Amino acid sequence: MTMIEAMRRWFAAAALATAGLQAGCDKAETLPCAESIAQACSGATLCVQTWNEAQVDTVVCAGTMPLRIDCGAYHGITFVFADRSRTYYYDVGSGMLVAIVDAYAMAGSTCAAGPSAGFTPPVCADSASEPLPQCLDGGTTD
Predict the structure, then answer these.
(1) Domain of 30?
(2) pLDDT tens-place values along the chain, 142 residues long
(3) 124 class by beta-carbon count within 10 Å (0-12 exposed, 13-18 middle, 19+ buried)
(4) Count of domains in the chain?
(5) What is the pTM of this model?
């Protein structure tokens, strides 16, 4: 992949990630969560449970360039895939992972893991995403 192709993919991913965080910008919607964070993190799902770890752990870099965003009471890390994006929400106060939300381009959002009462993703119309520093290219070329 050329440098230009890589940049195009990154900008497309950034746009989709920001769109995922901004979904329903004019309204807040509580999403029922399929399972708890403890249940989700006990399996094979990528699960870094604290914000401090997420900012330095390179396990979050596997496969795709994750993007971070600060929005409302949450830090978010978004991974963009071909058919969806997945955002991990960390509480700003405690630094703990509180919810994992999937956003689908045509089907809306679902909460994969979070509180038993559901999770209300924050409204982030003016926020911008940026790559996680530990996931930036270490200088290798194709």
Answers:
(1) 3-121
(2) 444 444 444 444 444 444 444 444 446 789 999 999 999 988 766 688 999 888 877 776 766 778 888 888 999 988 888 888 889 999 999 999 999 999 988 888 999 999 999 999 988 765 556 666 666 655 344 4
(3) buried
(4) 1
(5) 0.74
